[in-house]
Amino acid sequence: MDGQSGQSPATEPVGIDLVAPEVFAPMLRRLALAALGVGVGAALLSAVWLSWPYAILIGLAVAVPTIGYVFAFQRRRLWLSGTVIRAHRLFGERTVDLAAATGVQLLVYPARLSRIALRVTVGADTQVVPLAMYTDVGSGRELHLLGLRKLADALAASELAAAIAISEVLVQQLRAEARDAGLGERPLYRAVQSVRSKDSVSPVVLTDSEVAALG
């Protein structure tokens, strides 16, 4: 370990956002500016009939929710440090240790844009980590290779059989992505397709046997 950095490569934080907030940063800035403009317009228009204090309150009521949403979206991040997931939220941070997990599941949200996520439970705390999303026409987005590898390693440190099984699924997904395999060869896509084939409309937790079949 480098004595200057204070962290080993194994525990250096890695972003595990499926879509990093930076991707949407330009759009979010435009949205915030548009909300500000609409708020100012609403305040000026209201001032024709109301006193300025009330007009300003109306302008704030129009602009602040959207600007607040933009700020909250940019604040939300997921990091993995060793076996610890750190979820940055608008206020504060939640941490869950995969090595101490009491429950680990793969969860599929079927829709035209289907998502598959890792759900980790540690005592009373639960954290969901999106792993991939796929459209019904065969396109989508998957967690980057480094994120998959770090998650697989962290899950392998757990004593839960389910965590070990899901770790193997992520390793197979990692190998498929690394060789640019077709979607049909990628475990996460196969998991989504299996749920879609059942015409499910609500989130589905994959069973142990279904997870094992993906590995």
Descriptive terms for the model:
disordered N terminus, 9 strands, 215 residues, 23% strand, 2 domains, 4-stranded antiparallel sheet, alpha+beta, single chain
How large, in whole angstroms, is the Cα Rg? 21 Å
Distance between the terminal alpha carbons, to the nearest Å? 34 Å
Structural class: alpha+beta
Strand adjacency order, main sheet: 8-7-6-5-9
How much helicity do the residues have?
40-55%
Strand content: 15-25%
How many domains would you count in the coordinates?
2
Shape: elongated
User: What pattern of helices and strands is seen along the backbone?
Assistant: EHHEEEEEEEHHHEH
How many β strands by DSSP?
A: 9
Main β sheet profile: 5 strands, antiparallel
Mean pLDDT: 80
Provide the low-confidence segments as ranges.
1-5
Count helical runs.
6
